[in-house]
Amino acid sequence: MKGLPKKLLPLTLFGIAAITSLLSVQPAQAYMVTLEQVGSNVVATGTGAINLTGLNFVESLTTFVSNGVTAASASIATGPSGVTLNINRYTGFTGPTSFGSGAGTPANPGSGDYVAIAGFVGLLVLPQGYVSNAALSDSMTFNHATFASLGVIPGTYEWTWGTGLPNQNFTLIIPRAGVPDGGSTVSLLSCALLGLAALRRKLGC
Q1: The whole model's pTM is what?
Q2: Which domain does 57 fall in, by range?
Q3: Which of 12, 74, 124, 136 minimizes the number of CB atoms within 10 Å of its CB?
């Protein structure tokens, strides 16, 4: 039995290395919006940063804003709605011009930063005074909705600009049914750790 710990050591080291790699702190990510079915609602959550280098500034204005999604024109606006805000408009990116057939669905009033992209017309909207690479965060909820009722097609949609520097992209993720999220990954890792601990106890290590 004395030789068992040595035989188990490589397995233990491999498990620690794999878990450390998966759970290590990641660098700041580019702005990303994720649509998620939560019960009978669809929730959109936006987070990340945008590098303004490579975009073309169009104008600053004060205007009444609304949130929601229009898949047919690759448009999604997250954050507050039904209020007057100071915003900046930019052009200069390329990417999808649609991500479904939906003609337009407003969400309930959201929260956070107002961020919008319209792929068909090539327009990006950010809060006035936004500083390049600063963190953005927002959300909105579509009550009693599904991906089908919103007319969106699951997939990953990305708009890019510039020369490929960090955060020169805007990503929309609409997950397919059955795809595990980050929480599921953590759960699987927890099960693996428990299994490894049980094996070590059984072998008397």
Answers
A1: 0.75
A2: 43-176
A3: 12
